[in-house]
Specification:
By secondary structure, the protein is of the alpha+beta class. It contains 5 helices and 16 strands. It comes from Tropicibacter oceani.
């Protein structure tokens, strides 16, 4: 069993428009845009990062906004819900705020002993806010003060067939997660002593398979402290029979990728070097930052990419 994984590092999804996506996360949810860059493999598409002040691992939601991308279809073999922690007593504030911003899918519930508010992003993305104790310092604004602001990720909920759920549970246990309580078809897994984003839920369902598109989670990334620990994880996964990519430099972290038995794409990302490697902390996410291999395309990309007004 591995002991290098801390919990979630980031979650990456697909959007149909950059401006709408940016407004949702920075205005409605009150997160900070910590990086404005491009997709390494499709540089005519943004890669936008939102999180706390520094983009601390475990707080960062990222997006590939493919212009006018078709809407994805929810189902099995995907991360169905990405959940953030908010302080206890904050859900009434958020229910009103999200309603005022025209956010759809608002629904309150209690699951596994926690109060939650479910809602939908601009492309039908599944989100939840969950009340809990969380000492992380949030990014606060005049509209979203510190006593109600999002602290970072609480969990990710994978929706899987029973067979894939069993195999994925075995993988999570190998990755250092311990199995916890079950309610209905959902079973909780957590990393003891991990970061504050150390929960994965698996929900069993016989629904049809998901079809990825706008509103779908592209992949979830797990945090390790450094490259040495990442290489230890990579070797262990390869020895277990998983097909794992070589280490890839993503400028703000190093990454490896592999598919789970249920088809969800997992990444293991380092906490180093961080989002302040090429921008002053006070100005994170303001300028368009390009990977070195795409810098020669700057003039063209600045004409092609959808303007984002803050």
């Amino acid at each position: 069993m591995l002991n290098q994984i801390n919990g979630l590092h980031h979650v990456t999804s697909i959007a149909s428009g950059a401006q709408e996506n940016n407004a949702f996360f920075t205005k409605a949810l009150g997160l900070r845009r910590v990086k404005k860059t491009v997709n390494f493999d499709a540089p005519d598409v943004y890669h936008l990062y939102y999180g706390d002040e520094l983009g601390t691992p475990g707080t960062v939601m990222t997006y590939f906004p493919f212009h006018n991308a078709r809407r994805g279809r929810s189902g099995t073999g995907e991360v169905a819900t990405t959940a953030f922690t908010v302080p206890r007593g904050a859900l009434p504030f958020w229910e009103k705020r999200l309603a005022d911003h025209g956010v759809g899918g608002l629904e309150s519930a209690t699951r596994l002993g926690e109060n939650r508010l479910m809602f939908r992003g601009p492309d039908g993305d599944g989100f939840a806010l969950i009340e809990g104790e969380d000492s992380r310092t949030p990014w606060a604004t005049d509209d979203v003060p510190q006593d109600v602001a999002l602290r970072g990720f609480h969990s990710a909920d994978m929706r899987l067939t029973p067979r894939d759920a069993d195999a994925s549970a075995e993988l999570l246990r190998f990755m250092g997660y311990e199995q916890g309580d079950t309610q209905g078809g959902t079973t909780r897994f957590h990393v003891p002593g991990g970061n504050a984003a150390n929960i994965i839920d698996i929900t069993r369902t016989e629904a049809p398979r998901a079809d990825q598109g706008a509103g779908s989670v592209h992949h979830i990334a797990f945090s390790v402290d450094n490259r040495d620990k990442q290489l230890e994880v990579r070797k262990a996964l390869l020895d277990t029979g998983y097909q794992v990519t070589p280490v890839i430099d993503r400028d703000y972290f190093w990454a490896i990728y592999f598919r789970t038995p249920g088809g969800v794409l997992f990444e293991v990302a380092t906490n180093e070097p961080g989002f302040d490697r090429d921008e002053d902390t006070a100005h994170l996410g303001e300028a368009l930052k390009l990977p070195s291999q795409h810098e020669h395309l700057r003039a063209k990309l600045e004409q092609l990419l959808e303007p984002i007004t803050d």
